[in-house]
Amino acid sequence: MTRIVFIVLGVLAFGLFVRLWVGPGSYPDMQRLEEKIAQQNAANDEQAEVKRRLQMDVVGLSKDDEAVEEHARSELGMVRQGETFYQVILRADQQVTAPGSQAKLTPHVE
Length: 110
Prior knowledge:
The chain is an all-alpha fold. The protein has a domain at 1-63. The protein has helices at residues 2-21, 27-63, 65-76, 94-97. Helix 2 (27-63) packs across helix 3 (65-76). It is a single-pass type II membrane protein. Residues 23-110 are periplasmic. It holds the Pfam family DivIC.
């Protein structure tokens, strides 16, 4: 009778040991979940920083007309009346800025 009890306890212990190392809730599964949590926390921190910068922009734009003008100039390309806008395109940047052109631009050598 004791032999049967020991065998049953041994099988149960083996089953618990296998469950501890394989399957859901096992040690490797917990490590994977902890890595996912760390990655998500890093992504959350990045998003919090973006949110903080955007909130600072909103506060600045609501209080300062010069900030609104700066955004209009840099992001929308707006100019004041009487101003002339000049865009300088470097030879190295011509391929990038001309999306419709299929011909390669070669430098002119004299």
